[in-house]
Design a protein that fits this description.
The chain is mainly α. It has helices at 2-16, 20-40, 45-58, 62-75, 80-92, 95-100, 102-115, 118-127, 130-141. The relative contact order is 0.10.
C-alpha cells in the first residue's frame, strides 16, 4: 500500500504543474503499477478503488469505472477508510456511471448511512448533486 500511495501522490503532484506531459507520464506509471498490484492482490478493495481513481483522471469510461467501483465495493464493503473515500469518488462520477453501478452504489450508500458518523453524513449530504440526493433518499427508505 505505501507504494500505491507514493504513485498516487506523484500523479497528484504532476497534475499541479503546467507540464501536461509529466502528468500523463505519472498517470501512466500509476496505471501500470496498479495493474501489477491488482495482479498480486486481486481481492484488495482499496486497490480497485485506487485504480478507479486513476482511470477517472484519465477520462470517464462509465462501464469501466462502474466495474472498478463495484469490485472495490465487493472486496472492501465496510472498511471505514475505503468506504469513505469511495463515497467521495462516487460524488465525482457522472450520473450515467453511477447508474451503470447502481447496485454497488446503493449498497455503499446503505452501509455509509449505517456506519458513518453523523458529521460525515452531513458533510457528504452537503456535497451531493440531485442524482445522488435521490439515491440517498432511496437508501434511507430501505
Amino acid at each position: 500500500m505505501p507504494a500505491v500511495t507514493i504513485m498516487l501522490h506523484a500523479a497528484d503532484e504532476a497534475g499541479q504543474e503546467p507540464n501536461l506531459s509529466a502528468w500523463v507520464d505519472a498517470l501512466t506509471r500509476a496505471d501500470r503499477y496498479m495493474k501489477f498490484a491488482l495482479g498480486c492482490s486481486p481481492n484488495e478493495g482499496n486497490y480497485w478503488l485506487r485504480f478507479a481513481m486513476i482511470r477517472r483522471l484519465q477520462g470517464e469510461n462509465s462501464t469501466e469505472l462502474a466495474t472498478l467501483m463495484s469490485l472495490s465495493a465487493r472486496y472492501a464493503p465496510v472498511e471505514p477508510d475505503v468506504l469513505s473515500l469511495r463515497m467521495r469518488v462516487w460524488l465525482s462520477l457522472q450520473p450515467i456511471t453511477r447508474s451503470a453501478a447502481a447496485a454497488a452504489l446503493a449498497s455503499d450508500l446503505a452501509k455509509f448511512l449505517e456506519h458513518a458518523s453523523v458529521q460525515d453524513i452531513k458533510n457528504f449530504s452537503s456535497a451531493v448533486d440531485m442524482d445522488m440526493q435521490s439515491r440517498m433518499i432511496d437508501a434511507r427508505r430501505k
